[in-house]
Each structure stands twice: as structure tokens, then as C-alpha cells.
Amino acid sequence: EVQLVESGGGLVQPGDSLRLSCAASGFTFGSFDMYWVRQAPGKGPEWVSRLTGGTGTIHYADSVKGRFTISGDNAKNTLYLQMDSLRPEDTALYYCGVDVRGRYYRGQGTQVTVSS
Question: How far apart are CA 84 and CA 66, in angstroms?
């Protein structure tokens, strides 16, 4: 059974940093595309970043490019999102997801609130 558990969210001030973690199980970590997606209150989901399985190719949404860094630790089966220079518009519920052979799974999410 695929399971994804996010952690690391919190309340921070503009300009601060946070590192989100996503503990994964039930599939071969590193072999499938993994994502970070966020959803702000009253808005639809927004794709944030992708770590491509196998090749490790990385993509970012323009809104976070240069500020966020996605990475994965195969030994720990954990996906990370390092978020620097946070802005109020980054406030959202952040989910990690994985595409396993055409089926998409996601975790429960972790809340990030950026406010002064």
C-alpha cells in the first residue's frame, strides 16, 4: 500500500525558510515521479515541483523557481522541499504525491502559513 506522510509545515514570517518532508512507503522510492502540490484557501491545486523518477530531473513552477528546492533521499525513502525566502502568497496546504504506473497518490498535507 502506497503511503505518503508530510511534515515540517508551520507558521513563519516573510523571508523565513522551512523544510517540508514526505515519508514514503509502499513503492520503490526514486523509481517514480514525485511531486509537491499546494492548495491555498479558496483556490485550486497548484503544482509546485517535480522530481522525475529514474533520471532525477527536476522542474519547478515559475512562482517558486529560485526559492524552493526539491530533493529525495533514497536511503530514507523521503522527499523534501526546502523553501527559502517565503512570501505570504506561499501560504497553502502542501501535499506530496507520486505517480505509480499511472495511478496518483498523495498524502494528507502539511500547512504552511507565511504571515507577519
Answer: 9
Q: How far is CA 75 from CA 32, 48, 58, 79, 91, in A?
A: 15, 24, 19, 11, 30
| Collapsed DSSP state (helix, strand, coil) of residue 101 | coil
Residue 6 CA to residue 66 CA, distance in Å, equals 22
pLDDT in tens, 59-116: 999 999 999 999 999 999 999 999 999 999 999 999 999 999 999 999 999 999 999 9
Q: Which three cell numbers stand for residue 54?
A: 529514474
Whole-number Å distance between alpha carbons of 71 and 56: 9
CA dihedral 61, 64, 65, 69 (to 10 degrees): -100
Q: What does DSSP say about strands 103-106 and 3-7: parallel, antiparallel, or unpaired?
A: unpaired
